[in-house]
Amino acid sequence: MKVLVPVKRVVDYNVKVRVKSDGTGVDIANVKMSMNPFDEIAVEEAVRLKEKGVVTEVVAVSCGVAQCQETLRTAMAIGADRGILVECADELQPLAVAKLLKALVDQEQPGLVILGKQAIDDDCNQTGQMLAALADLPQATFASKVEVSADAAVVTREVDGGLETVRVSLPAVVTTDLRLNEPRYVTLPNIMKAKKKPLTTVKPADLGVDVAPRIKTLKVSEPPKRGAGVKVADVAALVEKLKNEAKVI
Ligand code: AMP
Predict the structure, then answer these.
(1) Which of 39, 42, 80, 162 could make a disulfide contact with 75, Cβ separation 3.0–4.6 Å?
(2) How far is the CA of 232 from the centre of ligand 1 (A)?
(3) Is residue 19's pLDDT more than 90?
């Protein structure tokens, strides 16, 4: 069975992004970029399935600028067998990515697509669900455990009230939650090996997909600054402030 793993190049999670002065977005010039953390978990899970012998091939896909090749090489250093770059210099919104992935699902016919539950730059949490709808595949989102057999996957999901276990027939779409696994450390020999793995590049037009944005960002702004706190003398003073100042009790 083949697994397709979409990996997004995003601003590294350690970077504190700054809003552009004109409020049109965040400044990503000269900022460290990395693989979306949830996608690292997705690659790790796919590679573990391969190591267990359940999966035969892991294919990583990234949609975006030419530098996404680095993200694909990281996926291959974790253990993906090959990479596909859907090269596009324009902004790609989740619906466009889902359409591109749907076209690749038609081409590659994977038994499983494992995506991150959300990208940490746009926080959309949409692509996996949209792909499942477009490709008419069952979906199991926010997976914290995945068990795959020949024709089905049993997925434990993290929901508000606790854990939910669902069974989806394959092919299916799964999205990863933080506790699914801890991605392995990428070693230098594996980085070197990854350089030799096959990487193909296609354009959205080759896949017959119109990637024009459907959503317009009107304004991006910093969250309001938090005011300084105060120390109260005793519980009575606290209750008085909560009642009369904050008016929350
Ligand atoms: P989002 O819906 O934007 O929060 O993204 C959810 C997941 O979709 C990510 O964790 C990735 O697995 C996948 N994804 C989103 N955008 C891209 C992209 N440009 N290239 C590859 N995968 C993507």
Answers:
(1) 80
(2) 46
(3) yes
Pairing verdict, β 33-35 and 9-11 = antiparallel
Q: Yes or no: say if 133 and 146 are a contact pair by the CB < 8 Å rule.
A: no
Residue 7 CA to ligand 1 center (angstroms) comes to 6
The confidence band for 225, taking pLDDT boundaries of 50, 70 and 90, is confident
32 Cβ contact partners less than 8 Å away, ≥ 6 residues apart? 11, 12, 14, 15
Dihedral (Cα; 148, 149, 151, 154), 10-degree rounding: -50
Does residue 120's CB lie within 6 angstroms of at least one atom of ligand 1? Answer: no
Task: Report how far ligand 1's centroid is from the alpha carbon of 69 (Å).
Answer: 15
Structural tokens at position 206: 């080759």
pLDDT at position 150 over 90: no
pTM, whole model, 2 decimals? 0.91
Whether residue 119 has its Cβ less than 6 Å from ligand 1: yes
Tell me how crowded residue 122 is: count the other CB atoms within 10 A of its CB: 17
Q: Does 121 sit in the ligand 1 pocket, CB within 6 Å?
A: no
Between CA 189 and CA 138, with CA 7 as vertex, the angle to 5 degrees is 125
Q: Backbone phi, then psi, for 169, in 5-degree steps?
A: -80, 150
Tokens of 101: 């992935």
Determine phi and psi for 179, rounding to 5 degrees.
-90, 10
Do the beta carbons of residue 180 and residue 49 sit within 8 Å? no
Given this structure, which CATH class describes domain 2-244? alpha beta
